[in-house]
Design a protein that fits this description.
GO molecular function: biotin--[biotin carboxyl-carrier protein] ligase activity
CATH superfamily of the largest domain: Bira Bifunctional Protein, Domain 2
Radius of gyration: 18 Å
Keywords: Biotin, Ligase
CATH topology of the largest domain: BirA Bifunctional Protein, domain 2
CATH class of the largest domain: Alpha Beta
CATH architecture of the largest domain: 2-Layer Sandwich
Pfam families: BPL_C, BPL_LplA_LipB
Shape: globular
Enzyme class: ligase
Order of helices and strands: HEHEEHHEEEEHHHEEEEEH
Strand content: 25-35%
Helix content: 25-40%
Number of strands: 12
Protein name: biotin--[biotin carboxyl-carrier protein] ligase
Number of domains: 2
Largest sheet: 7 strands, mixed
Strand order of the largest sheet: 1-2-3-7-6-5-4
């Protein structure tokens, strides 16, 4: 099977660039933007040699996993563009729900789950059984005319997951999913078209925020957030209108714009 776009994505003007293997789909997307690509371009591969995650961390994509980057070139302000990471998380969760058979019961634990098969961990992970299944990375560059080239990178552990990481990880194959990266991407391109329609240039952010909270991992549970070398502990209350992570600590409300979130025993013992 080859990569292809859903009819809804094609109708909305999205295009596809598929590779057998790449260094980084985000890097390719930003290179296309530097060469005046108009955006709405999906760059996809089943193998990525030099992928990266948040804060410069490596993101491995062995043969059979999904590396997908959506390039958008618009006159966004950066604060608004950042909310598209939450749109991407919802799109991926919707795609997973669409293609993973119901007989594969993913009971989320360790993250304060409420029975959802796939949950969203702030700011950019998708979890299954409390383990990381996918990650999302946004990178941007400025283009002439005050336009922003935004690369929304989505990496999914389809057939394999890393073993030597300091957090639980899993893959769709480990969960019993018999499908492939191409099947998941087809559903993702469809789900993105629907969720970005709801987002509606930011006008629908209230709906996106509520849909995200409905799938949020750890909501109402004890968390520890590492912020600039310090650890803040409290109860995960919500995300606010700007998608900041909101916790209650000793009666105070603390809003966090960027950090690493830990649940369960790690939150109690201290975030590594």
């Amino acid at each position: 099977m080859t990569f292809s776009l859903a009819p809804t994505a094609i109708a909305a003007g999205y295009r596809l660039e598929a590779h057998d293997s790449v260094g980084s789909t985000n890097a390719i997307a930003l290179e296309r933007a530097a060469n005046e690509d108009r955006g709405r371009l999906w760059v996809v591969s089943k193998r990525q040699e030099s992928g990266r995650g948040r804060r410069g961390r490596a993101w491995a994509t062995p043969e059979g996993n999904l590396a997908a980057t959506l390039l958008l070139v618009e006159d966004y302000n950066l604060k608004l563009a950042a909310t598209l990471g939450f749109v991407a998380g919802l799109a991926l969760a919707d795609a997973l729900a669409a293609v993973v058979p119901n007989r594969i019961a993913v009971a989320v634990d360790g993250g304060g789950g409420r029975g959802d098969r796939f949950e969203l961990k702030w700011p950019n992970d998708v979890l299954a059984n409390g383990a990381k299944l996918a990650g999302i990375l946004l990178e941007s560059s400025l283009r002439p005319g005050n336009r922003v080239a935004l690369a929304i990178g989505i990496g999914v552990n389809v057939v394999a997951h890393p073993e030597d990481v300091p957090y639980p990880a899993t893959s769709l194959r480990a969960l019993g999913f018999p499908g492939d990266a191409e099947t998941l991407f087809l559903a993702l391109s469809d789900a993105w078209a629907e969720n970005v329609r709801i987002w509606n240039g930011g006008a629908g952010m209230a709906d996106i925020r509520q849909r995200w909270l409905d799938r949020a991992a750890g909501l109402g549970s004890e968390v520890a957030v590492r912020v600039d070398g310090n650890v803040v502990r409290g109860v995960f209350e919500t995300i606010d209108e700007d998608c900041r992570f909101v916790i209650r600590a000793n009666g105070d409300i603390i809003k966090i714009a960027a950090g690493d979130v830990h649940f369960g025993a790690v939150a109690s013992a201290g975030a590594a």
